[in-house]
Amino acid sequence: MIVISKLKNLELLPFPFLTQLKGIIEEDNSIKVEYQGILLSTIEHYIAIKKKSQKLVNEQQILDYAAQGALAIAFLHKCDIVHGKINLKNTFIANDGTFTIGPVNIFLNIYEDKLMKSEKQLGEKTIDEEDNEQIKEANSEQKLKENIIVDEKDQLKQQDLYDFGIVLYSLSELQAIPEDLDQICTLQQSSSQSHTHKHFSRLHDGFAKQLILSLLNNDPSQRPSAEELLAKPEIQDRINSWIQQPSQLPPSSKKMTQIYFSIAATLKYQYYKNLRRFLDLILHQKK
Prior knowledge:
There is one protein chain. The chain is mainly alpha-helical. It has one domain (2-284): Transferase(Phosphotransferase) domain 1 (Transferase(Phosphotransferase), domain 1). 51% of the residues lie in helices and 9% in strands. The strands form three sheets. Strands 3-4-5 form a three-stranded antiparallel β-sheet. Strands 1-2 form a two-stranded antiparallel sheet. Strand 1 and strand 2 (30-35) form a beta hairpin. It starts with a helix and ends with a helix.
């Protein structure tokens, strides 16, 4: 399958902010996915420790986590892979402070691949059996179904960003997202700031807060993509600080010196020597 091939290529792509895929085994019509062991603290556990010690996660840390998470999500989305499992139990903080996103929901991607393959076969069968008018109708119908699948995948990618916003909110406030989430999501469109105080008691007004609110926007079309997050000057500043002062970058993240990356969905991987080139690729490479 196409998606299996994509995911297998991730074995060749060590990425410091993403759990490393160890292998995919296909036998007896079943699929087994193995990941490298995760010797990290889940965000859920990390928050519990912070609350117990009464230590806050400061805004600079939030921006670092936002930058590291955005790099991982942009990397996956550029490879046309949906994560599908970004939550407090599947995101991690290493002892060196690196933010890491856990294993991808492989079955979500396989399902999309099966739909594409099934619809393609259906279209081919119709073309063989029907006259020209029906062929045109079948092609049109096939194109519509493929567009629907693409739209659904875009929605899943937007959901990845929304889920990432929930994780960042929980880190900033050391608590789960409140039930009245709809109110939070409309705050950024409100001229009044008084409503935000009960939801953001720890994080002050500023870029980090607005970034989180933008990810939690109820309107998916208004949420920034991972690429748009990386283009933000404040995020660029954090990444540039890692490049200019490598000592600030956790040891496990220095693997950024060797990165393979997909050009759109062709899976033709190229070698990039440093983070700056990788970032420029995400922000400027045409799909």
